[in-house]
Design goal:
Length: 348
């Protein structure tokens, strides 16, 4: 609503002044709405050159009457603003140039907002993207499995092995191997590698021989791997594992049937036995009462080149008796009887 006021300034001179007066139903004059945000300092995206793959971090601008700010990056083909276009997904103050940016320029556009509206301010166009240096391949990944340079040494060395002794793995040497080695100890019935079988659970870097190893040779398999595959190297064999009692030191050699064997054994006088177990080449073939002194063993279908016989007896008192022998098998012998295998005390 406008009110007219007349003010006399001088004799014969008058000026008409108009005053605008605001009224509201409540009698309270509402505040004027804020102005849109005003930029004080433009955002800065830097200057000079950056390389592809190197992150660029801009500095935000400063504003008055701004409640929030956001940024987006633009790619410019020249230093003229008309050549700039938004980079999809490139928001925030940090951006990592990609291959499409090489040879172009970068700038950042900042938007300030309040309840009245929004205002945009772009940075200067001064950052040019250069091609990055490609990574240098120091050692190309192997496309073929590792190569054995030096086979692993025989576990335990070349000395005599006794039941209960600890054997430690030797890695040998491989070319192009990556990561840790894998181990497998084997039990061999003869010096022929085809007689070797894995020892269940013996996959660590060390192994302690047991009664099942007496009369056998041991060897180690070491496996090395890389992206191209894996390679396994076998160590040479150890000497024959000797039992913990002198009676099992060196296995006798004899020619026995590869079909049927009859074993007879004796125990020291006064030894009260609970039971006997008989193993052939590490495999349990018979469990007998303490009164037994012989057993018949069929070898049909096995055709072993050598036969290792281990008899172990448990006594009612503490301690055990045993004997181990290794024999060659011959096809010309139809049956064989092995007598008087004297069982001797085994060390605990």
């Amino acid at each position: 609503m406008a009110l007219q006021w007349q003010l006399s300034l001088a004799v014969g001179e008058t000026k008409n002044l108009t005053f605008a007066t605001l009224f509201s139903p409540t009698g309270v004059i509402p505040p004027s709405p804020p102005a849109a945000p005003a930029n004080v300092t433009a955002p800065d995206a830097g200057s000079g050159a950056v390389t592809q793959g190197t992150a660029v971090t801009a500095t935000a601008g400063s504003w008055t009457d701004a409640s929030s700010q956001s940024q987006r990056w633009q790619r410019c083909t020249t230093t003229s603003a008309v050549s700039c276009a938004d980079i999809p997904g490139a928001t925030g103050l940090t951006y990592t140039p990609v291959a499409a940016d090489v040879g172009n320029y970068l700038r950042i556009v900042e938007t300030a907002t309040n309840t009245t509206g929004t205002t945009e301010q772009a940075s200067a166009i001064g950052t040019q993207v250069l091609a990055g240096t490609p990574p240098v391949v120091v050692t190309p990944p192997a496309s073929t499995p590792p190569v054995v340079v030096t086979p692993p040494a025989a576990p335990g060395g070349d000395g005599e092995l006794v039941e209960g002794g600890e054997l430690r793995a030797d890695d040998g040497a491989f070319a192009d191997a990556v990561g840790a080695r894998q181990y497998q100890f084997q039990r061999c019935a003869s010096s022929d590698a085809t007689s070797c079988v894995d020892i269940t659970g013996a996959t660590g870097s060390s192994y302690r021989s047991t009664a099942d190893d007496v009369g056998y040779r041991l060897r180690l398999l070491v496996t090395a791997s890389n992206a191209g595959g894996s390679t396994t190297a076998a160590s040479s064999m150890t000497s024959v594992v000797r039992g913990s009692s002198a009676g099992e030191a060196a296995p006798a050699q004899a020619c026995v049937s590869d079909r049927v064997m009859r074993l007879h054994w004796s125990v020291p006088p006064g030894a009260h036995m609970r039971r006997f177990t008989v193993r052939v080449n590490g495999r349990l073939v018979a469990t007998l009462s303490g009164r037994a002194r012989s057993v018949r063993i069929s070898l049909r279908g096995r055709s072993p080149q050598t036969v290792r016989v281990a008899i172990r007896g448990s006594r009612r008192a503490r301690g055990a008796l045993g004997s181990t022998r290794t024999y060659r098998t011959c096809t010309k012998v139809r049956s064989g009887t092995l007598k008087n295998l004297r069982l001797k005390r085994l060390r605990s």
